[in-house]
Here is the input.
Amino acid sequence: MIEIRGLPATTLHRTIRDLCLFGAPLDALIAIDMALQKRRTDKSRLLSDAVTRKGRRGSARLRRLVELETRLRWLIFNAGLPRPEVQVDLHDAEGGFLGRADLYYPAARLVVEFDGGNHRERLVSDDRRQNLLIGAGFRILRFTAGDVHSRPGIVAAQLRGSLA
Here is the structure.
């Protein structure tokens, strides 16, 4: 707890963690984006704070949203592409849960995944989930941080082609 104008308040990191724990993923992502953009924190401080460190409730979603890199969504916006839905639960025809998409275009049944730094640790489970999604009729595009930073034109062209 901190004090602002004599009133008790939660810290920025605690507020963001609580949004990840209790709020909608999009609301949490917006708060993370704003805090980073306004330079109230940075990724390193956000992820290493005692309140948000690995293992704390809500920290898994926080890490995933920070890892998602708003740069990919910014690239999509700047390319004039439609806005995707964020962190969408996907189900098969019988309603069984298959996984959660980083970004999703329902009309095209297109799942867009951002493979961050921890992707190698999750490779087997990600591959299994991808196979289930493809088997259920979803299409998938995967991008890395290197793609987004070094090849934004190619990323935008692949997205545009898959949405056409």
Observations:
- The radius of gyration is 17 Å.
- The chain has a mean pLDDT of 85.
